[in-house]
Design brief:
One of its GO terms (cellular component) is membrane. The chain contains two helices and no strands. It is mainly alpha-helical. Bound molecules: protoporphyrin IX containing FE (HEM).
């Protein structure tokens, strides 16, 4: 069910298409404009949300940054 949320065509245009730029700030190739922890909205829940959210999401995020360099 959580996986289905991330593929909801009412929320995501062409959800099955690999388009990572959809997470960027519009009109820019830098900066991520996405609420991953569900504080404003919940469009997908890679780390869960609310009280049981993954306590290591910040660590995971930092690792993505290092991997992306
Ligand atoms: C890309 C990396 C990761 C992803 C996508 C991820 C995702 C998740 C998700 C979806 C949950 C379940 C949240 C829920 O039940 O609502 C969770 C829980 C948890 N994660 Fe992660 N996680 C990642 C990395 C890590 C790392 C590196 C650690 C530890 C060093 C960690 C520790 C935990 C723990 C302890 C929980 C249980 C929290 C609880 O039940 O209160 N996670 N994670």
């Amino acid at each position: 069910m959580v996986g289905e949320m991330g593929l909801d065509p009412n929320v995501w245009e062409d959800p099955m298409e690999f388009r990572p730029e959809r997470f960027l700030v519009e009109g820019s190739d830098k900066g991520v404009d996405f609420d991953i922890i569900g504080s404003k909205e919940i469009k997908m829940m890679s780390f869960g949300a609310g009280r049981r959210i993954c306590p290591a999401f910040a660590l995971a995020y930092a690792s993505f940054g290092i991997l992306c360099l």
